[in-house]
Please model this.
Amino acid sequence: MTGDPTRAGTRSPRLLALLDYDGTMTTHECNEVALQPFVGDPWWKLEEEACSDRMSHADVFDRQVALIRAPRPEVVRRLLEAPEPMPGLREFITRLLERGGEAAIVSAGIREAIEAFWERLDLPPVRLFASELVGEGPDDGPPYHLEFSDALGGCPRCGPDCCKAAILHRLRRPGDVVLVFGDGPSDLCPAREADLVFARGHLAERCEQEGLDWRPLTDFGLVLDEVDAWLASR
Ligand SMILES: [Zn+2]
Model:
């Protein structure tokens, strides 16, 4: 199959895009911006554990959230204020869906923050695999823990029920070209199975180390042209 961009949507394979939320679709790490001030220095110590693979990213995020003592409305308000979309995101999603592709958000981030972000972009609904912020105290307040999407799977790196690769396996159809967009340790497992990876931050370093086929993610508006050029060169 050739990847003539002028025939995109008719002869090109279906594109399946799996998108991390925090620090991938947003210009900066909004969980960090919003939540780290509630936690202080222990936030960074835990973060380092995930980046060095000493603890799973899911375990780290859950422990970070467990250190928050602020009431729920304050936590949610901070989460909704923090995100700024990456350039070209709206255009990318719109064009991807128009050509028959599928997008899914696969994130350990908190569902209500991601839903609000998506609504603000005025984009059609896509599948969202995200976490619930559960408050065990009065008024759904602290102490908090996270309930991750039950579509995540188990793997030795990520731990039980926390691996994003399971969602790739679930959504991928035969012949799909799978694009993975991410920035963190939790995105490495799906990145290893993607056809093309668009990476920022820590994930970019890991893709480089592992020799994966990856591109730097700077502007979502450029992605489909890069994909079409890659398809044409196969
Ligand atoms: Zn994994």
